[in-house]
Target: tRNA-2-methylthio-N(6)-dimethylallyladenosine synthase
Amino acid sequence: MSETKTDTPKKLFIKTYGCQMNVYDSERMAESLEGYEQTDNAEDADMILLNTCHIREKAAEKVYSELGRMKPLKDLKPDLKIGVAGCVAQAEGEEIMRRQPAVDLVVGPQSYHRLPEMEERVRSGKTALDTDFPEEDKFAHLKGRGTKARRAPAAFLTVQEGCDKFCAFCVVPYTRGAEVSRPADRVIREAQELVERGVREVTLLGQNVNAYHGGMTLAQLVRALAKVDGLERIRYTTSHPNDMDDDLIAAHADTDKLMPYLHLPVQSGSDRILKRMNRSHTAESYLRLIERIREARPDIMMSGDFIVGFPEETEADFQATMDLVEEVNYGYAYSFKYSTRPGTPAASRAQVDPAEADERLQRLQTLITRQQRAIQESMVGRDLSVLVEKAGRKEGQMLGKSEYLHAVHIDAANAQIGDVVPVRITRAMTNSLTAEQI
Ligand code: 5AD
Ligand code: SF4
Model:
């Protein structure tokens, strides 16, 4: 309990970059800061927190330009405190305060439970920096306010963090640290609390979620969560092909609450490049794995990530990626131009000509868009079920997600937020579907 607590709450503005894990972390941080309520307006804030991403160069640079924009707010309001959290905080530490002196607080992803103390410290006019990897489980120590405030029907829940795979391009093993799983009993309790607060769907998060080992495997955790009354849907992300075990595949066949959607990044279709990426699987083994997953759950919607222009990638390597995408037929796929990350093994290798990489990215994105669009159009006339998340823009319309994660507008809906309703798809648009309730 802080003694400085006043009757009028201070205002907290959080801006979140990057992955879903950051979204989850931002929620937890906001709940841990007693005496604050969240605002959508940076100008009103007494505390600004940027929860940052370091995955690609562009993401990291955005932080500094945003901090530059925030600085004048501090000139107007000297009491305003500015903090940087997340993976840029972890990777750059003190350097952030040197580059942008308006920053009062820098906190790495493993130290969020120390945020309340750090806040008190900056309130007293000092700066605070913490980028440790402490032994203790931050989530167990992260004070919630015991709030029972209603939540949106779909929520993220982090179950595993960090990565031991060391793909040659990736900063995550350095920014998020070694793989750690949260104990299953805590995860299940948190899911029950979320359900009490109105949540109907949880997405279990981890950088390598299918390597989960919190006293159970991920498949066992999914089955345990499926027994939680009131929890209607379960998803998990992100998975590594090498950790996709038989039992998890079987769970897709036998657990109704597990949604038919799987994000399974492969990064490249070329075995030579996969090897250079330190992926320890081949294009062929990935394709066979998808075959087995589709045997278990024929309608599963596949999603993936791709990097183009990885060092030494030739046109033939890139063509192998295009061929793999053709073969898998992804419902969703995310493609990125390789971005050099300091300290990673690939950073010192021969880089692909940027114009060439741009051109490959374009070709891949054209193919991906065509696939996504075709799959989306194939939904027209089909009966799906939608978790209603909010009111739509048009009168009488509600907006939600299908089991395949498509955004669906339900016309003339007769449903409440949090309901799972059967619909028939009537129209496919670029980024969403339209449906009527049945
Ligand atoms: N450059 C480009 N894309 C990257 N990713 C990870 N590191 C890099 C990098 N250095 C992509 C991968 C990963 C996704 C989250 O981001 O495709 O799956
Ligand atoms: Fe970004 Fe990766 Fe960190 Fe998520 S874990 S915030 S994607 S660098």
